[in-house]
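Hey, can you fold this?
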Amino acid sequence: MKANKAIFLDRDGTLNNNKDHYYIWRMEDFALNPGVEETLTELQQRGYMLFVITNQGGISKGLYTREDAESLHHQVQAMFEEKGVRLEEILYCPHHPDQENCLCRKPLPLLIQKALARYNIDPALSWMIGDAQRDVEAGKAAGLHTLLVEPNGDLRKILDRLG
């Protein structure tokens, strides 16, 4: 069976603007960064599966619940689906290092590795894109190519850098 290729994207700061809201768990606070829709559409047309890998430490801090995060993620997936973009899965770490230790928080690669195994993805053909060094570290640890983008910037800038 032929292996798939994928793009793994950080959420806050990469897909959506988090300038005034560090913890985002309500759809009314979720605003796409410039070029996200066009970029994801183009990447999907290039044959990439699309995933979101996100740290959601606000859950551990008691600021919102897993249900809040999952509700937002379902709404985000539905919003993209209406635009013809399929996010295969949004994987998140609910832990915060001030509260507890875990194996799933970026820069650790566990969430990426789960998707690689679950969806038969070749890491050598795949990318992790994020706005923080921990995103790059997680991608490299999982064997992916990586791109560090400007926080809350125009995602279209990456298209000429990917195959």
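Oh, and this one too while you're at it.
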Amino acid sequence: MGMWQLFKDAASKKLTWTVHPDKKRIDLTAPLGIRVGGMISINCPDFILADGKLKIRGPQEDLYVTSYGQFRLGDYKGHRFYMGAGDKLFMLQVIENEKGQIDECKLFSLFDEVIPAADSWDFWLNDNDGSIGLSEFDLKDGTKYFRAWENESEQKTVCDQTGQATTLNHIPPVEIRESIYMDPYGDQVESVGHMTMLYGRNIVEGIDEFMFVGVAEDKTGASVQITIGIPLGATDITVLF
């Protein structure tokens, strides 16, 4: 079924859960006061200022929080809130530094999902020149994004078929294990493994758009997922309840 289909089903049904009076909610310390089953409103002026040049489209309705993900990235703790409005799905990612302070906040939506044939995975995950990890990534329409993460110690120069070095280089995708809570008490937990890379591009002065390209693997199988998003400020997010 895939993880985004799981969230779509949850958003459309607004799944209920058993209340445990003696059990602590897993989202009590989640940042920004966002809770599973709650509603938030996103009002980011960049969607207007970008003049239609963004690949991500902003939510037109208040968003229902269907589930909550957590992961570690070195000393940083990642929080992901999966949200829906009608048939539109979004993911709000909040990163906390080692002091528990919010380091970044980005809103993403799924742009494309590919299930490669068995003999096509090498195109995405080859150790030397797989698309996930190249210094540049092009969408099908030619829109170019540039790698936002760097790892100089593992960087490799990519050569063409004649053996000549090109301007591209490659680093391994980052591996993340995410636990996704489908209810506030942790009764239903989905485990998703990610092999991912973050890319970005400048839209207009002061506005950047970001893109995760990665493989997500859960109990239903694996797929290549491209999610696109923009940074948000604290004033762009209103927690309704």
